[in-house]
Amino acid sequence: QVQLVESGGGLVQAGGSLRLSCAASGRTFSVYVMGWFRQAPGKEREFVASISRGGSTMAYTDSVKGRFTISRDNAKNTGYLQMNSLKPDDTAVYYCAAKTITGNWDYWGQGTQVTVSS
Q1: DSSP 90
Q2: Residues 60-91: tens digit of each pLDDT
Q3: Which of 97, 98, 92 minimizes the C-alpha distance to 112?
Q4: How many whole angstroms separate alpha carbon 60 and alpha carbon 70?
Q5: Among residues 53, 12, 61, which one has the least CA distance to residue 36?
Q6: DSSP 81
Q7: Helix (H, G, I), strand (E, B), or coil: what is residue 89?
Q8: CA-to-CA dists, residue 81 to 42, 51, 103, angstroms
Q9: What is the rounded CA–CA span in Å between residue 37 and residue 23?
Q10: SS3 assignment, position 102
Q11: What is the largest CA-CA distance in the chain?
């Protein structure tokens, strides 16, 4: 199993940037696909981005393409989500998640709040 802890959230003005980190411990981080999800008040949790085990393949939801970048450093057991040009609609609790190549998103962090003011 792997344990995940997010950090880096906070309050930022529209147009600003934040970088979220996801520190992994337990089983070797590099065996997991990593993803970021978010949940805004009153809304369902939604997929934001994912990155393959080796870091060569990324996927993004349409609303963040060109603004967010997912990355990982397997040597540091850490994943990242660089968020630029933030909008008030990006306000949510952001969660880091992990899954094996054939599994579901079974491993989750506790979440970190991102608030974007207009």
Answers
A1: G
A2: 999 999 999 999 999 999 999 999 999 999 99
A3: 92
A4: 9
A5: 61
A6: E
A7: helix
A8: 23, 10, 22
A9: 15
A10: coil
A11: 41
Q: What is the pLDDT of residues 43-54, one digit of tens each?
A: 999 999 999 999
Cα–chain center distance at 29: 15
- Taking only Cα atoms into account, the Rg of the chain, rounded to an integer number of angstroms, comes to 13
CB 49, CB 36: distance < 8 Å: yes
Question: How far is CA 4 from its chain centroid?
Answer: 11
Pairing relationship of beta strands 10-13 and 112-117 according to DSSP bridges: parallel
Q: Give the tokens for residue 78.
A: 């850490």
Separation of alpha carbons 92 and 111, rounded Å: 10
Q: Are the C-beta atoms of residues 71 and 54 closer than 8 Å to each other?
A: no
The three state secondary structure string of 14-48 is CCCCEEEEEEEEECCHHHCEEEEEEECCCCCCEEE
pLDDT digits (tens, 9 = 90+) for 7-29: 999 999 999 999 999 999 987 89
CA of 108: how far to CAs of 12, 33, 81, 93, 101, in Å? 24, 12, 15, 13, 16
